[in-house]
Amino acid sequence: MSDTPVKQQSTAAFYGQAVASFAVALAATAIGIFNLQTDSWVRAFLGIAVLYLVTSAFTLAKVIRDRQEAGQLVNRVDQARLEKLLAEHDPLQKL
């Protein structure tokens, strides 16, 4: 009873949509910051803030993914141990 989980992979369309959405959002923010009617140091500060936000979002997504994958690995090891114990157990064996 060893079920190998099917690795879920996103479609090319979903991947393309995610990349396009990210590019449009980043470009719109950059254009908005560039066209602000304010000092250049304020625009530079906002640009750095956006870059920091983007890198933080990527890091957070990676950490969440890594924790989920680690949890799946632990669950698979626990399931294998349980299956081994059940396979070795003989209820008719005399004590």
Brief synopsis:
By secondary structure, the chain is an all-alpha fold. 76% of the residues lie in helices and 0% in strands.
Mean pLDDT: 85
Largest sheet: none
Binned, the helix content reads over 70%
Strand content: under 5%
Shape: elongated
Order of helices and strands: HH
First-last Cα distance: 27 Å
InterPro entries: YiaA-like, YiaAB
Organism: Streptomyces composti
Keywords: Membrane, Transmembrane, Transmembrane helix
Protein name: YiaAB two helix domain-containing protein
Give a topology summary.
Elements lengths: L11 H23 L5 H49 L7
Helix pairs in contact: 1-2
What does this structure look like?
The protein has 95 residues and is mainly alpha-helical. It has two helices and no strands. Helix 1 (12-34) runs antiparallel to helix 2. The longest helix has 49 residues, at 40-88. The radius of gyration is 25 Å and the shape is elongated.
Name the descriptors.
95 residues; mainly alpha; 2 helices; transmembrane helix; membrane; YiaA-like; YiaAB two helix domain-containing protein
